[in-house]
Amino acid sequence: MVLAPGAGSGPDSPLLAAGARGLAAGGHEAWSFAFPYRAAGRRVPDPPARLLDAWREVLDAARAAAGGRPVVVGGQSMGGRYASLLLAAGAPGAAGLVLLGYPLVPPGSGRPPRSDHWPRVAVPTLVVQGERDRFADPAALARELPRLGGPARLHAVRGADHGFGVRVRDGRTRRDVLDEVAGSVTGWVQTLGDGTTTGGAGT
């Protein structure tokens, strides 16, 4: 699996690190990478075409290293969104897509949902979304999920925000949430291997 970071983070993101640990425990190899602007120490994301080119280069490298094993792509927020755009553009070689905190609509933007390209994403997709995500709560995503061109599953994380942070009053720790996210990803990846991937909402 290759997981890309969100706009404000890098490959050392706690969320991606937790996902990598969970995948490694399940016998799966996990990669992450820094987009060019982050590698250069800049804070403002590269233009869309450069972000897609970077993703394409990493996917090509992952496919070459995988030696015929399936490759799953995805990431946190912007990283996952651009993975979905890459697949919608016809990039070959991905067996699945994982979206962690999908940025469906920027808060207060009034823009249409960022899902017009979803019908062209033909691979199985897992969306993991916090219940308090200001970019899209699970209910909003559930309405959009049927647009995806392949089977899709939604896992809602109780009490989590867009960065999968939680409040003290929710009675959960950051580690609890990260472990839940990692477990949902690892469990879903296993369904790709045994052929039981199905759509529908998770818990």
What does it look like?
By secondary structure, this protein is α/β, with parallel strands linked by helices. It has a single domain, classed as 3-Layer(aba) Sandwich (Rossmann fold), CATH 3.40.50.1820. 36% of the residues lie in helices and 16% in strands. Helix 4 links the parallel strand 3 and strand 4.
Describe this structure in a few short sentences.
36% of the residues lie in helices and 16% in strands.
Secondary structure topology:
Elements lengths: L1 E3 L9 H12 L5 E2 L3 H4 L8 H19 L4 E6 L1 H11 L5 E7 L24 E6 L7 H7 L7 E6 L16 H21 L5 E2 L2
Parallel strand pairs: 1-2, 1-3, 3-4, 4-5, 5-6, 6-7
SSE pattern: EHEHHEHEEHEHE
Overall geometry comes to: globular
Sheet with the most strands: spatial strand order: 2-1-3-4-5-6-7
Portion in strands: 15-25%
| Relevant CATH superfamily | Alpha/Beta hydrolase fold, catalytic domain
Q: What's the CATH first level?
A: Alpha Beta
The helix content, as a percent range, equals 25-40%
CATH architecture: 3-Layer(aba) Sandwich
Mean pLDDT: 92
**What is the gyration radius calculated from CA atoms?**
16 Å
Q: End-to-end span in angstroms?
A: 23 Å
CATH topology: Rossmann fold
The largest β sheet comes out as: 7 strands, parallel
Kindly name the structural category.
Answer: alpha/beta
Summed up, the helix count is 6
The poorly predicted ranges are none
Q: What is the total number of structural domains? A: 1
